[in-house]
Amino acid sequence: MTQLHQHFEKLSQRYGYTMTPPFSLIYELGVELISSKDLASAEKVFQYSLQVYPEEKKSYI
């Protein structure tokens, strides 16, 4: 998740406005972490998803 944050922070600085990762990217990362049995990291990813995209129903699954 840290690399994802760093990447979008760099993009935000480069283009001069806040850019957030698309929901699909965050969701796929969370699913991949669940598949690899890294549940603690997956939880962090989905918590971040809830903060950034509270309207997305998949974030609550």
Task: Report what the structure shows.
The protein has helices at residues 2-15, 23-35, 39-52. The protein is mainly α and 61 residues long. The model has no long low-confidence stretch (mean pLDDT 91). This is Tetratricopeptide repeat protein.
Task: Calculate Rg over CA atoms.
Answer: 12 Å
- Morphology call: globular
- How many E-type strands? 0
Secondary-structure-based class equals mainly alpha
Distance between the termini: 19 Å
Largest sheet: none
Low-confidence stretches: none
Strand content: under 5%
Mean of the pLDDT scores? 91
Helix percentage: 55-70%
Number of helices: 3
> H/E element string?
HHH
Protein name: Tetratricopeptide repeat protein
SSE inventory with pairings:
Elements lengths: L1 H14 L7 H13 L3 H14 L9
Helix pairs in contact: 2-3
Primary descriptors:
single chain; 61 residues; mainly alpha; 3 helices; 67% helix; Tetratricopeptide repeat protein
